[in-house]
Amino acid sequence: MALDAETFDQLIETVRRFVRERLRPLEGEVEAADEIPPAIVQEMRELGLFGLSIAEEFGGLGLTMLEECRVAIELGHTTPAFRSTFGTNVGIGSQGLVIAGSAEQKAHWLPRIASGEIVTSFALTEPDVGSDSGAVKTRAVRDGEVYRLSGTKRYITNADKADLFTVMARTGDEPGGRGVSAFLVPRDLAGVSIGEPEKKMGQKGAKVADVNFDEVAVPAANRLGAEGEGFKIAMRVLDRGRLHISAVCVGVAERLIADCVAYAGDRRQFGKPIAEHQLIQAMIADSKTECLAARALVLETAAAKDRGEDVVLESSAAKLFASEMVGRVADRAVQIYGGAGYIADYGIERLYRDVRLFRIYEGTSQIQQLIIARETMKRGG
Question: Which contacts of 271-279 are long-range, i.e. CB under 8 A and separated by 24 or more positions?
Fold first, then answer.
């Protein structure tokens, strides 16, 4: 259920002020330390950011998809690593539980996920499994009242701090996604180990690492849904996650455009501000137009999802367009800033690196193209 307009406006203004006054001043510090300050994480908990998408009955804010996207756009106005701190709790780390969890599973986990007491992660990708997500090799073998889980997951966001993993593992011999099941795996079970965080191109402060499972005894009660339903659950989780990421892309693009406008108004060449040169204006115009188009697509699709419509195609279209769009906007921003855009002090090169990941995770641009084409043909055009 949507919040009333006044309450939601207050939430948006609170998030906007938090981004402007608390997060943006810390961007350089986070980049240098590759860490989000603990005090900021606590403030995020107090603001309810870990529970944006979780129902009020479990202590969350219970936002609709449209409301969540509008909040995500505001959060995109700062380095994406801040959002990633609680992003798995809002999206891929919690939504399998929201979608397919039993009443007992929800009551046990969701209140602590919503409060930020525990951090969740989504463990699908493997060393040999990325875009072909139905080909997971991690196995879960039934042994009485437990499953023996073995395998390695790779590039798992927030793995270094996660308390609970939603793990996709093969439980049957059927090929592809039909043999995959989903499990809730607490970090403290014997046999779970976390690798060292990877050194990344961008998004410093947001950690990814391997998660290893060595004959982990996972209670059968921790399975999400029936055996063989894991792939379907994962795809539904990713549909929602793609919309959220699309909204973040729009927010980052808005931030970059505002920075470019301010810089172009101050920077002078040939006796006048570069904002008065038509080729600079063309780059700003292209960026603004593409950003507006992405925003409209994201919000329209989010509203359709809230109405219960099938938005598999539209979610992929939003992810494809918004993630590619913000890459182009970031590239133009470096060009508008010129030499300054290549220097770390201005923050443009940092955002240029940060946004590159958006075209890869939660389904690469190429996977989105395949989904869009498949769904378009199903619909007959």
Answer: 274/336
